[in-house]
Amino acid sequence: MSFFAQYGILTRMRFQMMRNEMMIFGIIQVALSVGLVLGLGYIVPDVSDTTALFLTTGTATQAIVTIGLVATPQILAMEKQEGRLEYMLTLPISREAYILAQITYVAAMALPGVVIAVALGAWHYGFGLDVSPLVLLVIPLAILSLAGVGIAMATLSPHQQLTNALTQLIIFYVLFFAPVIAPKEQLPEVLQRVSVVMPPTYAADAIRASLTGLPGTHLARSLIVMAGFAAASTALASLSLRRRG
């Protein structure tokens, strides 16, 4: 069976297996997007256009982080614990097709949150978007890089509890200590240095650059770094899966 045939079958299986969770993820995505766009706007006094743009594009990035770096590794860790992952690895399937099927599911779950965050932010704060055609490359690459890291984390982690703890730290870090919702210059120097090696930094920068006219973005650099994260993380995940079975 060809790679693409395997990918199609595995993708359909993933959606069928997770159909009950899809509604839950949808509700969480909507609630999180609305909560961050509106709630943080109430907390921050005198929201300027620049702040509104950062908040909106940061929330769109957060939607991908929530699914790719939090939900996905937690689900895979649970499947490892229950033996479902081991069963899948006994089948004569391509490990790369399996990983790509997981990322496709992540994309389907993350995109509604991205769209809602951007549309709600533009409407609520009354700003216009400067959409670049490159957004069609940025969004898939952001999903691929973040979901790839999430899958690698789950496959390499020895225990479900460790995976769950790491994902909780990630969501906490992205919300409060990463240049995602707030500009990098507002963070302490140590956090600015840490952000250089964190994939959400580049996803947020690329999304911001492709949707707004904000100065200080580095689209080309972010695309290159995201591609590197995507390639390295999927290679690590594939290697880990091959060693497991």
Written description of the protein model:
With 245 residues, this protein is mainly alpha-helical. It has one domain (3-244). It contains ten helices and no strands. It has helices at 3-17, 19-43, 49-82, 84-89, 95-125, 135-156, 160-176, 189-195, 199-211, 219-244. The longest helix has 34 residues, at 49-82. It is globular.
Quickly list its features.
245 residues, mainly alpha, 10 helices, globular
The domain tally reads 1
Helix content: over 70%
Tally of individual helices: 10
Per DSSP E runs of 2 or more residues, the count of β-strands stands at 0
SSE arrangement, N to C: HHHHHHHHHH
Strand content: under 5%
Sheet with the most strands, sense and barrel status: none
Distance between the termini: 19 Å
From the alpha carbons, calculate the radius of gyration and give it in angstroms. 18 Å
Low-pLDDT runs of 5+ residues are none
Oligomer: single chain
SSE blueprint:
Layout: H1 3-17, H2 19-43, H3 49-82, H4 84-89, H5 95-125, H6 135-156, H7 160-176, H8 189-195, H9 199-211, H10 219-244
Helix pairs in contact: 1-5, 2-3, 2-5, 3-5, 3-6, 3-7, 3-9, 5-6, 6-9, 6-10, 9-10
How would you sum up this structure in a few lines?
This protein is mainly α.
